[in-house]
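Human: Not sure, check this?
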Amino acid sequence: MTGEPDSRQTRPGLLRSLIDRFGHLVRELSKFATVGGIAFLIDFALFNYMTAAQDVEQVTAKTISTVIAASFAFLGNRFWTWRHRRGSNPAREYALFFFFNGVGLGITVACLAISRYGLGSVWPEVFQTPVADNVASYLVGTGLATLFRFWSYRRFVFVEGGTQPVLEVKQDRHGA
């Protein structure tokens, strides 16, 4: 049919539009994941060291390892992931970051406690093992807490100082 755009012409425009619209989000998510990955390794190593080599109780060890990893994550997110979002009050950012990390820690520790003490009381040979502790804490708990943290940091912690800019609606040169 005449007058319809060729799919070869439409796709680059659609792809470009998606990149223009969501590229910043992909970059933020990539940086957040990198900082989070390093913080995860810190958390994982400390938790397992404290429980295996130091005989620290699991929930206590998880709390300590998470606080240390979260301190690293704050610095990485503030000065790398969201450095372009300079808020007007660093003390506010710091307090909110650790508040939302506390909620994330609660999510993670709840998953570990449900596994170890809830399900573990029913089936201790399965749920009171180092493998079960790591699955509950790091796969289930950290997965759920990470989703919550990304949303809350982006929405409440690392925001632009002052008034949020209004997004300009751009039209293509054909007026569409």
The mean pLDDT is 82. Residues 17 and 61 are 47 Å apart (CA to CA).
